């Protein structure tokens, strides 16, 4: 085996052998081409999909987009390049010279010397029509094509940027990234919203479970993170999460992404809320700094038409009843339309792992939810019950002692006060972009009665 350093050295050698030919045109992403200052005839090749074609007497104008930015690159060509195949939606490769544009709308444009249509696109059959701003509901029918529109392009670029920003936040703040399992034998939330995992074909001994125990798709990586927080004081995970909720609501998916963090040696909800707030702010600042045009497009074309749904008229529920969407909306409105932390929930409403506040006849647990305008619950978190005897009693009452013996072990061997939270990533995107329906902020939405592609 080559050591990492020797491998890198060998790779460097390879790349210097294959140096570019002196007059070859450089392949550029559209974003990079648009960013060239003082263009003066550099020979470049650009590849992408045609977003518009405008044919004048002697000149042909094309706009080509490759997904690297919202803006497309203007191609200026002699009208002799016009062909029946060069239509909206077709894929092309253009070679030419990058020059300063005379128009105020862009800095640079590509003077085409060669245009190749790589794949034609039949306009009549193509569900996305030239110059039409299709409603998001319409586009949802075409999960294989909707990424070619400006709106989905912007949303998905923001999604990618926000993913990177979340990783940066945790890295910059000393968290260790843990890959928690997708297949698990626990039901962390105890809500029974599990998808069971079984082999599709009959195994040789059909009466046996593949894993010997029932196995499910994870509803949360929390319990595995708690294991890790017993060795690395600050950990996080960010991956797909599955809930068999029979809901087609605009804020529920059967497969969504959750950002989860677990922090050892904290004993107040304040400490937890501070991390939640910092994560939200740092991620949003980075998204705004790195893709302002994409965010602006969403705010311009999606958020204004957002349906607000029913009005939040309902008052808060009685003590001991859970908060429903209507109540969450009421709270957010009542607090002036800003994000609101709700803390210390009745113990009976929450899962077994939350820390008992030991506060009398109507016991509460140290839980915290962050509610945000337009979306409702964005974060859910809590301090965890780190005291062996209290946890043991609670598990025994629910008949879970055997299943969670390993979890009790954590309280027996070097237990520490700790807490953590989970943030629904799609709900986060809905919140910052003003997207009404969660199905529009994930590339391939899965929900009851729908698993397209
Ligand atoms: O409040 P939840 O259920 O918390 C947990 O699962 C904890 N174990 C997390 C932790 O402490 N590590 O879920 C966390 C967040 C919710 O606030 C919500 O934003 C999102 O996950 N969420 C969903 N998002 C989309 N579709 C669904 N079906 C969701 N269910 C929860």
Quick recap of the structure?
The chain is an alpha+beta fold and 453 residues long. It contains eleven helices and 15 strands. Strands 7-10-11-15-14-13-12 form a seven-stranded mixed β-sheet. A five-stranded mixed beta barrel has the order 2-3-4-6-5.
Which sheet architecture does the biggest sheet show? 7 strands, mixed
Strand arrangement, major sheet: 7-10-11-15-14-13-12
Query: What portion of the residues fall into strands of 2 or more residues?
Result: 15-25%
The count of DSSP E runs of length 2 or more, i.e. the number of strands, is 15
Give helix % range.
25-40%
Rounded radius of gyration (Å): 27 Å
The DSSP helix count reads 11
**Residue ranges: pLDDT <50 for 5 or more in a row?**
none
**CATH class identity of the largest domain:** Alpha Beta
How many structural domains does the protein architecture include?
2
What is the CATH superfamily of the largest domain? Bira Bifunctional Protein, Domain 2
The name CATH uses for the topology of the largest domain is BirA Bifunctional Protein, domain 2
SSE series: HEHEEEEEHHEEEHEEHHHEEEHHEH
- CATH architecture descriptor name of the largest domain: 2-Layer Sandwich
Structural class: alpha+beta
User: Which overall shape is indicated by the principal axes computed on the Cα atoms?
Assistant: elongated
The end-to-end span amounts to 40 Å
Which molecules other than protein and nucleic acid are bound?
4-amino-1,4-dioxobutan-2-aminium adenosine-5'-monophosphate
Mean pLDDT: 91
